[in-house]
Amino acid sequence: MNIISRTILAFALAAGIAPAFAQAPSPVPALPDTERRTSYTISNTTCACAVGFALYGDSTDYGNWVEVWLNGALVSSANYTITSPSGPLATLPRPITDAVLTFTSVQTGTVQIVGARRPRRTSQFTENRGVAARDLNQALTDIVAQNRETWDRTNDVAGRTVRVPPGETMATLPPLAGRANLGAVFDAGGNLVPGASVPSTTFTAGNGIAFSGTGPTTITNNIAAGGGISITGTNPLTIAATAGASALYVRPQDFGAACDGSTDDKVALQAMFTASAGKTIFIPAGSTCVTSAPLNLPSNTTLVGANTQSPSIKGIGSAWPILLISNKTSISITGVWFQGSDNVTSWTSSTVGAIQFGQNGSAPQIGSNIFLRNNKFSGFNNNYWVNFNTQGSTLPASNIIIDGNQFITATADIPTDPVPSNNSNSLIIFFSGTAGGGRYENVRISNNFMQADAACFGIILFGDTYKYQLIGNHILRPGQTNSSHCTNGFGATNAYGITVYDLNSDGNPSADGIVSNNYINSPVGSGIYFAGNGASTLRSANSARTTIENNLIVGQSSLDSLLPRGAISINDTTDISIVGNSMYSNGTCINVAAQNAGDVSILSNNCTSDAGGSNGFQLTAGTNGSSNTDNRVIRGNHVNVMGTALTMASTVGGQFANVDIAGNTLFGVGGSINAGGNYFAGALTVGSNRLSGTANFSSITGGLGLLLNSGLSFTASTLLGIAAGNGSQVFVSDGTPGSACTGGSTGSMAFRQNNAWKCF
Questions:
Q1: The pTM is what?
Q2: pLDDT tens-digit readout, 146-163
Q3: Would you place residue 536 in the very low, low, confident or very high pLDDT band (cuts 50, 70, 90)?
Q4: Is 98 among the domain residues?
Q5: What domain count does the chain have?
Q6: Of the residues 82, 122, 282, 306, which has the fewest C-beta atoms closer than 10 A?
Q7: What is the domain range of residue 90?
Q8: Three-state SS letters, 502-519
């Protein structure tokens, strides 16, 4: 029989009809006596973290099995998955002991996985038969697991619900509509009830808080003391600084300086600066610190004075400059009065009085981030009061702000010097390197007050400054105390409010500037003076790309002809717009001279003067002959002067290119337009001007685009000289064409066409 059975089984196996043997599920493990919670800290990952405890939930709705918290916020089950490496959740036997949590996108922070099984039983054991021990273990352990999750939320030690002590009860909260937008308070019976609306009501508070109101409700402070701070007491709460003052700022007195106005504190002051990089240095009110030697400042220094009512730092002896800032960055100086002692006797060798900023190093940020705000300067008879110098540097110096400072000059600030070329001094001056080296970028000089009677230059940019703003400065009487001291080798009177000058003639002029809203009173030479290198005819070598706008200039006086003079003077530089300026009682309002290439636009300015000999606009052509590309646009201006409103001068070797004179009011007792003999490589357009006084073009050589202005005077030679080969069409009203007209007519109106004049 055994042989037969084995034979039948062998045939069955060969035929593939052997009975199947299903694998029995693993035994149900015991439930650990620990909280059903697992925590992780992750960074920029989807987690893929083990759940860490057995899951008994049926179906696949794992969002009803656990809660997932990220950084204290409950995460929706739509933003994560629960899987098992053992197989699909729907078919795995319970409990699942190797479940894995994975976020749908990368996360960073603290992750907590908490058991939160929703109780339900969707099927029952089959009745009238025995129940397997495993089935009972699974069902009972599932129930106990849910009990444990509930206990974790409510137990006395680690519970997460509001509870009261044994023997007490708490009333049910009111419906949602009765508690929405209200504070939670406890009533006289200790029950949690809605309170007053928080935005409209105050409460009686605990330590450190002083609220009033009914209730009362105590709100305990949650304040932690930081470094150098202590918190003591209850109602009132006392917050005190435990750190010494030296941890917050330093004073000269902390380093032994007397600062009494007479004791030489140079050693103590230098020790203070050397030890105070990165700190704030404070000079208290009433302190006048004296030094007989220059003081070197480190980078990252903040110097603050209490006020400018008394001198903060005074230089004596050879303390020139008072502050020396060489190859340093991030310097801020505010509220300091720098006082000199006027002890320089000669300007033969140049010296700096208050502050010298030097940059000739190789670090990219050296010389950058310099801020001078609300300081006062007085008593210096040095050549330069505040001097920036990048000569010798190949790197730019950037982000420089000079704002709200006072400069007070006096007669004693001018020493006697026999060398004319040395006789000049400047309040704020910038020197740059050559060939673009040491260029200044992002410079703002604004809102400074300059009592400049004894100074030749208020603000001067020598060399290359890029992206600059000179705005809102108040400059009074530059050079008026003794204008003869503001001389150079030519003997010219050089006293200017604002000067921008390509002194090194390297073809890198200051550019991309705004000169706006400045008030300049009684300048000798010019209120605003721009000068190029005077050598190159290339436009790029002289292009300022600057707007001079909305400035008020009063009382410019010098009329010498050695250099262009006027409220605004432009010399050998181009691409400048002069717009909306007001000029009163000046010797000349706008003087544009010797420009070689580019454009100058003079638009919507007001020029008025009742001074004898005063002139409006003076235009002088460049020096490169018929190849000149010098264009002038004079439109929409109002000029009313005792001299000539508009004067033009050119030569065969220095011609205008194109000149557009239109829409102006030109009133001059000495004449409205005096063009004399003029030469044009391009065209002259004169139209729609209102003229008072003689308007004369004695001769014109070159192109004549259009003359449509009444009151213009021409000689016969003028019209004939407009060129038979020109072919231009010209209409002249109220002119004097005379014998130039064909047919002998001498009418007062003429029209030129096909190289002949028709008169009416």
A1: 0.66
A2: 888 888 887 755 566 777
A3: low
A4: yes
A5: 1
A6: 122
A7: 37-123+136-154
A8: CCCCCCCCCEEEEEECCE
